[in-house]
Each structure stands twice: as C-alpha cells, then as structure tokens.
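Form 7-S
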Amino acid sequence: KSFSYQMLLNMASNPSLPYCCNAAAMGLLNAVYVDRFPQVSNAGKLPHKLWLFHDRDSMTRSSSNQVRKSSIPVLRKTLDLFCRDAFPAFFLPRLSSVFVHPNPMLSHPDHDKFYLLQRLYADAVKSFGSAGRVIHSDSNFNKLGLATIQGQQNLLLFGFLSSYSKLKALCTPTALLFDGRSDLSDHGKIFEPPDARYKDGGSETELVLQMKRELIKPLNQVT
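Output:
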C-alpha cells in the first residue's frame, strides 16, 4: 500500500529524478505488480503455452453471448498477423475470481492492463536514439536501460506484448541496441580501436554486457 502502482509509475517516468531512481522504481514496479510470483517459473517443467485448433466453446455459444470460457488460446487456420488476436495473449475467463476484482490492480480483464507501463518501457528504449547507441560511461542511464529491458521481457512472457504491432515495436529497437556498432565509450568519444568495446572496462563494461545479454531473451522468445 505504501508503493501504489500509480506512484511507482510516476517515479519511473519522472524526468526530474536521477536515472538510478527511475530504474529502482521500474524494478519495484515489476516485482510488486507484474511478476508477483517469480518462484512459479521454477516450480516444474510444465508447458509454457497450449493451443487449440478448434474453439470448442463456439459450439455452445449463442449469438448474444460471444464470450469464451476456456483459458486456452485458439490457433486459427488462417493467421492474419495484423489481427489483434493473431497470437496467444494473456487471457482469463470471466468466471475467474480475478477477471473482475474490486481492486483494479488485481483485476485482469485483458492483455492491455499494463498499457501505460508498456509505453513507459518503449519510450525509455527510444531514449537511446534511433541508432540504439549505448554510452558505456553513462552507468546510471544504462541501469535504467537494463531495468527497462527486464520489464519488457516480463510483459512479453506473460502475454501482455502479443500483437504484431507490439512485437514489432519491441524487436526493432531491441535489435538496434543489441547491435552495438554505434556504441560510444563516452559522450562524443568513439571506441578506438573499434574492438576496444569488447575489452574489460570494469563495472561499466559489465553493466553494458549485462544489458546485451538481457536483450537476447526477448528476441529469442519472439522467434
């Protein structure tokens, strides 16, 4: 209750706060409201996703009631990538106790619940520029970038980034950040020689390499 979703979202996006504070707010926001049960992923080797070739619920639905009761997404015969529901997304049936909850932060009616957080992450990635340039000496800003990448990964894994447009908006800047050829050692200072970017530069290099490793995860998940 001390750290509401609105307050953490405001702290994470507040340009008046230091980047390290923005990054810390993003991390707490992700831990408290998005990935609330991180231990579940280690509970067992269960299938991550299930698909149905036919929607059995359609056999029992009337024309006045088009609500699916199953929580398993349907794999359509004709896949239109631009369709909002082309890919499996976060979905709960209406009978679920958390589909509509008195506390809006515990309610999960659709996969657009974290829209503002999604936009915050996208804007933070865009702040690296159209070339996806990482400045190795800017550690505090890179911490914000790392928190952003980890947050996007969780939204992707939980199905909140599932449409074609959302995946494209995620992958394009992610690939540019991962590229690294436009990275700088300091503001206005290129790496000389170019392979110097791969040499150990202490904590600054370690942080950038951690960012690069995290960037592989969403690209791998999408593929």
